[in-house]
Amino acid sequence: MAALGMTVLDQHTLSLVIWLPVLGGVLVLASGGDRNAPVARKLALGFSLATFVLSLSLYTGFDVSKSSMQFIEHYNWVGALNIYYHLGIDGISMPLILLTSLLTLIVIIAGWEVIQDRVAQYLAAFLIMEGLMIGVFSALDAILFYVFWEAMLIPMFLIIGIWGGPNRVYAAVKFFLYTLLGSLLMLVAIVYLYFATGQSFSILDFHTVPLGYSVQVYLFLAFFAAFAVKVPMFPVHTWLPDAHVEAPTGGSVILAAITLKMGAYGFLRFSIPIAPDAAHHLAGVIIGLSLVAVVYIALVALVQRDMKKLIAYSSISHMGFVTLGLFIFDTQGMEGAIVQMISHGFVSGALFLCVGVLYDRVHSREISSYGGVVNTMPVFAAFFVFFAMANAGLPGTSGFVGEFLVILGSFRTNGWFAVVAGTTLVLGAAYTLWMVKRVVFGPVANDNVKALLDIKGREKVVLATLAACVLALGVFPLPLLEVVHASVENLLQHAAQTKL
Fold first, then answer.
1. Positive or negative, the Cα torsion across 136, 202, 144, 86?
2. Cα gap 145→467, rounded to integer Å
3. Among 286, 339, 284, 344, which Cα is nearest to 317's?
4. Does the structure show a pLDDT above 90 at 467?
């Protein structure tokens, strides 16, 4: 009986990881609102913890030697249109699912005492969004992917619009419109491919359909419209700083750590394998935009006075590294891009949590409002400096591994790409150290800083968990590289085989 139960669990692990947090969100909503806030918090913690533990079985049961999809589920959904509930993961999507489940758990713990208004709705939004984001990384049917892709906009829109700052409505609407309009072109491309494949919405069938070069270019541009906005790439990045500044801390963490990665994942799952010839021919444009993001956006970050805006622009610059690594079509470069995606999730999430710790106490994100924080919050200061160093790419942290592999791959493709990309090691250190120097070090700047109390046990657990992840990936990245290697090699081999 136990063996039978285990088999059923193995067969439906992905569905459980997707729908368990959604169910949790519904139950949290039904818990009675602010009158039963403690019950809502405990329910949310229980479901997010269960989802994370369950997602670990995806790693323990994953065969790193295979590039094919694993944990496959395939059921009829809308048979008349050949739409299926089709799930599966490979070495590219599995780490992103683990990252999603871990960061959601951390966000719920981090907001335990901070969120006092509409507690149940806040927690439910994150749980439902978690399931929808995992659905994006698991879907192998294009319509199912599109449903998850669009549906996750709704809880994030509500999180920014309800619990955000003074300009939250403007930021939420801008975020929603940018991402929605780009996605409509993706839907057009999906419908075209449905007929091109003989009426199939299977993403794996999309990978093998023969397409002419001009068709590939149009499809690539349609997918680019959706994924470039989500990354976000220069010049369609302007929604991100507004969204970050206005979003509550938890919203900023998920936005930076997970939502941006969905755009890069889309390039890997759709753009490159479906339109490989167009991807190769247009790679120069993508690389150029990526290098502009790496350098120009880093310079923009240097002049920011708001800590959240500085970290938001830093995210755009680091995601430029990701798109650079994807489109140089080099094994180490692409693996470095995926490592950078995971690393950026840890580091940016931790930095936004650190800003949230200060904001909860002083109610200001302005760098000028601080100074000498190390004198009153030494434990917090140690964490903040550590994550800042990881953001700057300090060797021994996860931030270094991804950037190093991308630069290495870039050098093999074109030395000048590596030279330009390498400037981020200087510029990243510049804007990060500029912020740390003014916020953390020096004498106590004012009475607000003098009255600060160091972080509590709950905050220590959250930041220590992320610090351990950053350090582990920086010192020993092999487990992650082993997971992604076979899938990356298979993708590059597929992309090298022209469809023309």
1. negative
2. 32
3. 344
4. yes
User: Residue with structure tokens 């208004």?
Assistant: 117
CA neighbours closer than 13 Å in the CB half-sphere of residue 461: 11
**Encoded tokens for 265:** 């994942």
Rounded Cα gap, residues 419 and 449, in angstroms: 41
Q: What are the b/e assignments for 342-364, b being 16+ CB within 10 Å?
A: bbbbbbbbbbbbbbbbbbebbee
CA–CA distance, 112 with 290 (Å, rounded to integer): 38
Cβ contacts of residue 41 below 8 Å, gap of 6+? 108, 112, 119, 123
Could you count the other beta carbons within 10 Å of the beta carbon of residue 203?
Answer: 22
For 9-26, what is each residue's pLDDT tens digit?
A: 667 899 999 999 999 999
As separate numbers, helices (DSSP H) first and strands (DSSP E) second, the chain gives 26, 2
**pLDDT band, very low/low/confident/very high, at 168 (cuts 50, 70, 90):** confident
pLDDT tens digits for 418-457?
A: 888 888 778 888 888 889 999 988 888 788 888 888 888 8
- Angstrom distance (rounded) from CA 205 to CA 214: 20
Cα 40 to Cα 256: distance, rounded to the nearest angstrom: 25
pLDDT score at 9: 66
- Number of neighbouring beta carbons within 10 Å of residue 27: 18
Helical (H) or strand (E) element with 108: helix 93-110
**Interaxial angle between packed helices 119-138 and 153-163, expressed in degrees from 0 to 180 and rounded to the nearest 10:** 150
CB of 283 closer than 8 Å to CB of 327: yes
CA-wise closest residue to 95 among 321, 258, 333? 258
Spatial distance between the Cα atoms of 162 and 139, rounded to a whole number of angstroms: 29
Report how far apart the first and last C-alpha atoms of the chain are (Å, whole number): 53
- Identify which of 297, 291, 348, 280 has the alpha carbon closest to the alpha carbon of residue 322: 291
The tokens for 387 are 């994550």
* C-beta separation of 303 from 430 below 8 A: no
Structure confidence by residue, pLDDT tens digits, 251-279? 889 988 888 899 899 999 999 999 999 99
Q: Give yes or no for residue 182 having a pLDDT over 50.
A: yes
